[in-house]
């Protein structure tokens, strides 16, 4: 016991000593993640070199990235495994600036994967208020459930000043942004001082548009596609046209890739009756383009309240259920959420005809959960209570998910199955076993398809498997838990570039 105390004391004093002489200015924070890469940014007080070490086990570093010399340091880590947690450590020479369990990032699940995930969305927060801090404290309590956050603009008041980021952003959210990517859009307050110079300095976005501007962009996360638009600086004339041309092509490409959910965000809501009312310019310019492509969910800030519409199309209600919205594929049908009270609050001015939920004078954030074909939304108050819930379920797609060809069974015959035919006529019957062997760790994707190539259920969505022999099992049930009927099915399993598929016969 005594020696353990002594050892703890020694470790503590070493930690304190290293912190005493190694202090960052602010950061580190994670940006611009995808299924293969992540960027970490940190600022030092004096000009010096900086390195980032990363690895799946803390202390067992798999690589080192040069973060550059100066006071601003940026390390982009590439060639990572999908849906994998990586710890990182930040150093300058022998000085360790950041290390420990709280410094990590997680790569996205591979696009198309049906891995369940959650994210936060909120706007209008960086004003240094007590309500901002209370909401930040609740977000920290709920942090483990969420994979990333969307910032809906008005990040820093009153004018997006650089100095205010150092007071009302980095210190307030430091325990969240060190391991979660926060994705921004510009708000009207963010652009007041020097056209958003601080915003563009601190945030890094994919800028995956022909103009290569960071103002608007998109990214995939599992089976969802996220679109961030600029309604502040590039909302006129040719700029707006370019943005709309890009968004159409971008969303169409995402649908072709097989992304199932389309989620868009920008600052000003088309519909609101809070601290702002309906915005006709947004209604005319953004709404028709996105709805025509079948976008499912639109997230905005600006109005310092919480609001959520019924299911809408062309500015009208098409489903007046309070909370339950089936949607066919990419039909024109969207839900609009206003989450503009991440710190600022205001009151509801009147009952809005399109809103299923309105709440004023309360701070909080929207939490969205996606699991396969189901999307659940909930607005969480800074006290932790869920004040609104809704669900969208995608059905009736009837689309073919894969083309199964016999040639796929060769040459990578790394999996085998038994029994065949497999029977589920009584409880003693065995499930279908798909046994496979891999020589290196690999993400495994496996699913059961019907004879038309439509997904019946998923057995693995890109989860990592260690080298060795493994067995996946199918209990004859579909994604909804119902028993599949007697007939011919296929399974398809993929490890990296190796694919194996085979026909199976289910007998009830
Ligand atoms: Fe605003
Ligand atoms: Fe605002």
What does this structure look like?
The protein is an alpha+beta fold and 508 residues long. The chain has three domains: 16-106, Immunoglobulins (Immunoglobulin-like, Sandwich); 117-395, Purple Acid Phosphatase, chain A, domain 2 (4-Layer Sandwich); 406-507, Immunoglobulin-like (Sandwich). The chain is 17% helix and 38% strand. The chain contains eight helices and 32 strands. The chain has helices at 2-21, 130-141, 162-168, 170-177, 197-202, 237-257, 280-285, 287-292; strands at 24-31, 38-48, 51-55, 63-66, 70-77, 85-92, 95-98, 104-106, 117-122, 148-151, 182-184, 217-221, 224-228, 261-265, 297-300, 306-309, 311-313, 316-319, 324-328, 335-339, 355-359, 364-371, 374-381, 386-395, 415-418, 422-423, 432-438, 442-450, 455-465, 468-474, 487-495, 498-507. The strands form seven sheets. The protein has a seven-stranded mixed sheet, with helices on one face. The protein has a seven-stranded mixed sheet with strand order 12-13-14-15-20-16-21, with helices on one face. Strands 3, 4, 6, 7 and 8 form a five-stranded antiparallel sheet that branches. Helix 2 packs parallel to helix 4. The chain starts with a helix and ends with a strand. Mean pLDDT is 91; it is low at 1-20 and 405-411. It binds fe (ii) ion (2 copies). One fe (ii) ion binds next to loops. One fe (ii) ion (FE2) is lined by residues 154, 187-189, 267, 302.
